[in-house]
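User: Working on a comparison across species. This one is SURF1-like protein from Ruegeria profundi. Can you predict its structure so I can line it up against the others?
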Amino acid sequence: MRRILFLLIFGIAGLAILLSLGVWQVQRLAWKEGLLKDIDARIAGDPVSLPVAPDAGNDRYLPVAVSGQMLPDEVHVLVSVKQVGPGYRIIAPFLTDNRTILIDRGFIPTTAKAAKRELGEMDVVGNLHWPNEIDSYTPEADLDDNIWFARDVPALANALGAEPVLLIARSRTDPSITPLPVDTAGIPNDHLQYAVTWFGLALVWAAMTVYFLWRSRAPSKSEAQ
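Assistant: Here's the predicted structure for SURF1-like protein from Ruegeria profundi:
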C-alpha cells in the first residue's frame, strides 16, 4: 500500500510540474505573438525624422525617412537569401543634415560585388536597427577583400566614418540592389513547440504512472497460485 501511495504522489507531482510548464509556454506564446504584432505595427508605421540621438532600446525598428547624399565607399556583409543564394548586404555611409549614418541598402549577388552603384542625392525610407549577429563563432572581417560576416554597427561605423546608427532601407536606392527590409521573421518564436513537448511529456508521464500503479496492484505469479 505504501508503494502504491508513493507512486501515486510521485506521479501526480511530476504530472503537475510538466503540465504547469506546458501552460507557461502557452502563456509565453501569447506574450510573444503580441510582442511580434506590436513590432510589425511599429515597422510599418509612418516614417519620422531621424532622432538627434537614436537609442538602441527606444528607437529599434523606428521607421525613418532621410534625405541626403549616398557617399562613396561601402562594406559587403556576406549573407544568403532563400531561393536566391549567397550574396552581400551593401552597407554605405549616408550624409544627411550634416550627419553621416549607415544605410543598409540591401542585397546583391556575389557576381555584382565589383559593380558600380548609384551615389549622390536621394531619399531613403527605412527602419533603424541594431542587429545582434555576433557570437563566439563569427569570423573576423576580411578587410583585404572587404567581406564582413555580421552587421557589427560600431565596427561598421568606425570603418565608414559614420555614427553608429544603421538605417535598413525599405525603399530602393539602386536598380541593382534588392532591399532587405526589417521584419519579424528572424525573431524566434518556439513557444508552441515547447508547449507541445511539455504536454507530450505529461501524457507519457501519466501513462507510465498508470502502468506502474497497475503493475504494483497486479498479483504476482506466486500470489496467483
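For your comparison, note: The two ends are 21 Å apart (CA to CA).

User: Helpful, thanks.
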